[in-house]
Write a structure and sequence with these properties.
Shape: elongated
Number of strands: 2
Strand content: under 5%
Distance between the termini: 76 Å
Order of helices and strands: EEHHHH
Radius of gyration: 30 Å
Largest sheet: 2 strands, antiparallel
Helix content: 55-70%
Number of helices: 4
Amino acid sequence: MYDFITGKYIGLNQVEDDFALFGMDPIQVREDMERRYAQYKEMSLEVGRDKRRPKEQKKKQKITPEEYEKIAHKHGGITLKEWLKKKVLCLVNFITLILTIW
């Protein structure tokens, strides 16, 4: 398959061979492919990339736990350890309150 945006071949198109195997009219298949090609070309030119291929995902930078802790404190947030300590303390206080009532 020819990518008209980059000007490179990105794969082989075997549609005509496959449809001939199923007994379809090759002229009809070519007309359908030309119409589809024009639609893809129009969509791709609007977006600026080839719509027939999936969009390349940007690689995410991995952050170590230490770097995450620094970022969390820098922006005024609490770390996971601090949050868990608060939740455990609240849970302990709740349990002691229930036990004293009983």
